[in-house]
Amino acid sequence: MSLFLIVAVPFIGALLPGLMVRAGRNACAYVTFGTTLLALIGLISQAPAVIGGEVVMASVPWIPQIGLNAALMLDGLGLFFAALILGIGLLIITYARFYLSREDNMGEFFAYLLLFQGAMVGIVLSDNILLLLVFWELTSLSSFLLIGYWKHLPAGRQGARMALTVTGMGGLAMIGGMLLLGRIAGSFELSVILDNREAIQQSPLYLPALLLILLGCFTKSAQFPFHFWLPHAMSAPTPVSAYLHSATMVKAGIFLMARMWPVLSGTEAWFYLVTGAGLITMVIGAIVALFKDDLKALLAFSTISHLGLITMLLGTGTSFGVLAAMFHILNHATFKASLFMTAGIVDHEAHTRQLPALGGLRKLMPITFVITTVAALSMAGIPLFNGFLSKEMMLKETLKTQIAGPEWLVPVLAVIGALFSAAYSFRLIAHGFFGPVRDDYPSHPHDPPFGMWAPPAILAVLVLVIGILPTLAEPAIFFITGAVIRGAAETPDYHFAIWHGVNVPLAMSGIAVVGGLVVLALYSPLARLWAASPIPYAKSIFDAIIAALVSTAELVTLKLHNGSFSRYAAFFMVAVVGAAWYAWATGAPGGSTREMTPVNAVAVAGWLMLVAATLALVAFHRNRFFALILMGIAGLMVSVGFAYFSAPDLAMTQISVEVVTIILLLLALNFLPNRTPRESGTGRKLRDGVVAIAAGLGTAGLSAHLMLRDFVEPSISEYHLANSYKGGGGDNVVNVILVDFRGFDTFGEIVVLGIAALVIYALTEIALNGPIRARLINRRPDKPLAGNQHPLMMVVLTRFLMPVALMVGIYIFLRGHNAPGGGFIAGLVFAIAVVMQYMASGYEWATDRQRYPYHGIIGAGIGIAALTGVGSWFVGQPFLTSAFGYFRIPPMEEFELATAMAFDLGVFLAVLGAVMLSLESFSKLAQRSDRMKEDHAISIDPSRDPEAESA
Amino acid sequence: MEYLVASAIGVMTAAGTYLVLRLRTFPVIVGISLLTYAVNVFLFSSGRLTIGYPPVLMDGAENYADPLPQALVLTAIVISFGMTAVAVVIALAAYLAGDDDRINGIRGRGPDTARNEQDGDGTAS
Lengths: 951, 125
What we know:
A: mainly alpha, two-stranded antiparallel ribbon, about 0% strand, elongated, B: Helix Hairpins, 4 helices, about 65% helix, MrpA_C/MbhE (chain A)
């Protein structure tokens, strides 16, 4: 199976659980299991080649300009991790099927789990480090979803947020580090980077790149001081803890350190940072784990400690360290996933996982007890269990490691870590399962169904097999180690065996185990001492930091963004005026190059009307109806101006938009107060006035300046004029620009218009279905309603006008390509024709006769426009290429047909639908409040017999 | 003629700006409409003023009105309707929900509005 498919299968499969959950919980689990199995089979199909020494590659360019290719690589290390991820995934899915209760949405859970799985497989198979970063972030996100899966639990939500904050921050640092690394190596492909050890380590950018990458690795793998998120992530369902937070995700950081080991390791910086952090994490994690009462918290800190151990081994920079690290990754994954699952079983059956509330489970849950004991003894490092082998290797490695201070420091710290590790493992068994059977468990515990204990049991068997016959694992671990070091160091000379003779590591192991037993015996006094000691609590520190950040951000944001609209508007206006003033003050305007156009009396009259209406608008804006009339005058004069300056298309558009806008505002005034109260003081008026006059003077100056000068560069209008007829088949250049040259812009614009109309529709629907509805129904109109709501004259006149208006619209539409007109204007004319019916005959009468919903008309318009555009693909042309021809049907004159006309039809429908949907939504509001229902469209109709009606 | 158009643009901009800075929704919407006129005419005028030029291709005509600003302004006019309509419906819904058409929030509701009230020039708003 192709590497792409292996990575893609979990992502594609993530769609299935959500669908299959309707078919039942088993179907849902099967399909998830099947998906994972398929990916695993795909991986196994590649295994022979990898084991044969080949590095399987697959690559397609994605965004080659920035060096981002979908490049995948499968070598020994990738195979090892991918097999761990998918193999343990299978067990976890089985376990989760029985763990999740009926109330939990299993489809959602498995979908997240598969997303996570795909991202994780993506990390370990990536060849391109930018691609790796994408998958890296995906694991943080899917982990966030999984930790917060129980949305009703505040702890879950907080834990998820904390995990995302910490790992997301690390991810951000990592992006920086990877970019630096790619820059040093000259490529973002790992296969190239890994061969450039010398160049990378000698580069001045090595240290920053190393720091940033390690920040990413340490946050992900919960290394001190970023370890605190992991215990809080334990509020996730236990399958998640077992999968993400013990076996896979937290190992992503380790994986990356191993992956980068050939190029990054071996320097002092690497050694001190990685070994130091690992050592501290190992010791602190082990000590804290001992004093945790919550089973999962104990295991979480134990995981932190073991991750520290692996990190430390990678930090030493020797090939033996890598060997031990790889072996411990395998061992830790087996025993820790198993332990998490048994902890989940205890929680599931006893309804508590607090050690003080447990004890005596040995007799009640014998199977669980056996599995837990095997896994815990491995964690403690007892011979015959696999944890012992890798711990011996770790102790052997520490003997050769000297970090700072005396040479015995590292070995002693390692023994302390191992000692506490043994102690909490023993405590887990002793306090959980030994002791008398109690009668106060929250629920009666017993062994779970087979499907729930089988997955940890399989892992426990593995623990024993590797523990007793380590030679079985030996070739595999040596092979993986070879893939990690890639010839950067000698292959270590070592053999996996339980008995290496009496030597120092064995003695250290013995001390650790005996010491662990002693510590357990002294647990009660030690726990009291621990409780009394002033240990900082990481969550409160984290919360304090977050709170400080938030309040700082608020300090800045609320100053600028305090909810006052007029303040934003003022900021904006002042900024614009300031920028314009700067441009004016620093630039040197050249002299006028154009002749002034002559002025005549008509133009002056029009100007006077416009200016007078605008100034009156400011003076009388408190009277809102009057303001509307004045606004209408201004709009009318603007459209007259367009007509005067040779722009008939604009004049027609402006005047029809003016009509619908005024109708819209009138509808709004039906509800809004009719007067604006006097609120601003003189100071405020003066301030606003100064800003306004500055803005006005600026724009006036700019316009005059612009109009009196020629174009500096030749305008592209020449091209449009020259090609409008040849290329677009139309004489009306404005229309040809709209539907042909810049058709894609127009397409975007009608989409925007459609969306605006839908927003209006949605908002009024919300208003009509929410608490506003009651207010509307009980509302008293602030003006007395006319007794004759639908006057006879108006009704008759509008109905008579309707076909005429529609005919005009069709005419304007048809001639649009060659004479002023087109889809925009025709749509507006049609809308006005229909609105007249609403106004004259009432909402109900008009709605009854409205056969097609306006949303549908918008959709049809955009659909037709899009299809016209797509149509040109079929003849091998780019989107929206137009074609035209001339036709003659005998009785008529020759006429033109252009595909642009179909596009214009789309524009027409979209504009019509959008305008009508907006106006209809507004009138619907009015309708609800208007309780006077009319039976007839015409209030007083002489043709009706009033006698017959009242009867 | 150029000065007439320029001064008209200036007057409409000034009036629009002043109205946008008012404290109730309706004048703000009217102000935005005025600004829209001003901006449209300004964009249109960037094609320079042409009186009596043919707007469509004709045989024998030498000069035409600049079609490009016209096409841009045409869609701008239609879009501005959509924008005004959305602004109106938001204003209306806010008014119906809160029985108040102040744009800076309602006095005594929420901490933000309390802050706003102190931000003005001290006069009651």
